[in-house]
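Encode chain A's predicted structure.
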Amino acid sequence: MKLEQDDNLVIGGGQAVYADEIAEKTPFSGSQAIEFSRSLALLFAVACGLAVANVYFAPPLLDAMADSFGMSHATIGMIVSISQVGYGLGLLLIVPLGDLIDRRRLIAGQSILSALALLAVCFAPTSLALLVAMAAIGLFAVVTQALVAYAASLAKPHERGQVVGIVTSGIVIGILLARTIAGGMADLAGWRSVYAVSAVLTLIIAALLFHFLPRNEVRRTKIAYPKLIGSVFRLFVEEPVLRIRAIIAMFIFADITMLLTPLVLPLSAPPFSLSHTEIGLFGLAGAAGALAASRAGRWADRGHAQRTTGIALAIMLLSWIPVAFMQVSLWFLIIGVITIDFALQAVHVSNQSLIYRVRPEAQSRLTAGYMIFYSIGSAAGSLGSTLIYAYAGWAGVTLAGAGISTMALIFWALTRRLTPAGAMDQH
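Encoded structure for chain A:
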């Protein structure tokens, strides 16, 4: 894919672009067009996968962490929730900088800080120190969104959905393998070893990103940092597509964390009594979601994002039926994990494809605004799921998950006609 400089700012949502406030960029040093190669796409995907894995190592390790710090099952969800709070802050405070400064340096810097946060978790002496370090991991893990927005800005408009799908596939695989790897390493060398090894790998990725990512020149602009952050909220006011798709994201990520966060608790207890390694293998059951991510991007490029969203949300709701019968057979759980993850990624990629059409010059801030709601949903689902499990068991978790899926489907149906024509399905 050859990428060319375009000095024209696209106007979205009937609102004028604030030309004096937005950094005008050339994608690379000079005005030469370059090739967005498969190897570069792979680097984007691998970097995203490792960064997001740092956030998702925790769920299969919750019982071990609880034992180390004397935390109860009702409150252990705080470990996951606090990382999502940090993630939300990073989305608001760090991701928008991608529209203002050199993204290559920003991405490499975040990766280095992520490695330091991982080491802090590894050596945390108390539960308070652990929670602070987990928040820092979430804060700097937003490098994934900087990478997604950067990849989208490099892609041709008609290929943007496919490129986002490839990079998002790396995120999906990172989430899934994080559980598998974390479980296996915890059994071999304890849960702290997971974060020590990841810190080393993250430093290696930081060096590779700084060396291979295209240089990104930004002309000086008068916009101040507080005004840049404020522009994220202004996009919510001006762009209905962003508002609608962000709320859908909140529902679907609350749904998936409602399933995955407390999963270690019933699986590690009788009658299953699975090891961390065996529990981690359930992450592989959702590998089909990676396939959905790329395919959904192609569907969105062809104008079928709305239809894909509706079908996927219905699948997500139906997925809770086999999940509810986990106690009968673990095969029901495997089926549910596969289908719910497939549906999640189809909706997520469709969402991103639609919002990136709105303001191509503000992709980092669009990403921040959208993913803040992802973080809200994930934090609520993580904390709520362990509380529900503590008081209502697995039946309570499945009912709550199905309820969230139902609300998401109803919201999509009610807002479908409110979506601007440019985001509707093409026939």
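The chain has two domains: 34-222, 223-426.
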